[in-house]
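Query form — protein LacI family DNA-binding transcriptional regulator

QUESTION: What is the three-dimensional structure of this chain?
INPUT:
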Amino acid sequence: MAQKPIRIRDVAKRAGVSTATVSRALSNPELLTEATRETVFRAIRSTGYRVNRAARNLRTRQAGAVLVLVPNLGNPFFSQILAGISEIFGESDLSVLIADTKDHATAGKRVVDYFLDSQIDGMICLDGALSDEEIRQFEENGVNGRIVFACEWKHGSSLPSVRSDNNQGARLAVRHLYELGHRKIAHVTGPQDNVLTHVRREGMLAERAELGLPVRDEWIIRGDFSLESGRSAAERVLSMEDRPTAIFCASDQVAFGLISTLRMHGMKVPEDVSVVGFDDIELSEFYVPALTTVRQDRHALGTSAARLLLECIHADGAISNKHSGPVMIDVNLVVRQSAASI
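ANSWER: The structure tokens for LacI family DNA-binding transcriptional regulator are given below.
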């Protein structure tokens, strides 16, 4: 059962003073005697009471900043999303703060504390790995109306989100390989617990079923969106007796690691095996061979998320009916040199 939040009357009871005295200790401590101040502040510390400035300060936008949570700042995928976010907030009076969640870069600070300590007016979360406890804290403290998911999201959450049509992107990749004559198509996934992994896998499987393509367990290879997982996937492919003729990777980074490792072992791309990625990061066009990939409009993901958050902030955390579902950004297939007819 969730613990009830500590109220100012709880502090007053613990200190043996009135609620007005507690309020004066917080707002005008110089009006109280040193002994009374010490008694009140001791009660505040012992009860764990926190001044909830969110309702007051967020309404007047006194913090003047928004926070963007990024799963891994070292991943070039996020650069254009952050550029789009910065572009929109650059036209407002809100600064952009960035926290890398890969190694818990918030240094143990609860995300909700950024709101409660009046450091931010809103948040864009590019990381769908927020815990149920964090979501509960947002709701309990009344700040969930100022949070927007972008790119990733959390299943079961009512928080607004902006996302690419990942399902359609996976279907485009498989359809393209099918039209090139491939029937033995492998897939390298993202991290097992990532929402994008599941949606892209669902799209891949749905398109295979529609096209009547065979599905073999060994052709679904677990990855994690990284170069290293691409290398591991290539080693798996090289060890197979019945190798696929084409591989759809859940990210461009995976595709790069895969291709480089295959080439190190004498396999040519696309002559021996075709490869399709997902994201269309900047390097995709310049990689050798240039990567055929599903393009996400990352800049649009950023600008759309920023505009949506601004709307939430200006509406005092209220979401209009038009945002009852996710804002979907179209994807398209960019055909280059890494996939060819069989």
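ADDITIONAL NOTE: The chain has three domains: 1-44, 55-162+299-326, 166-297.
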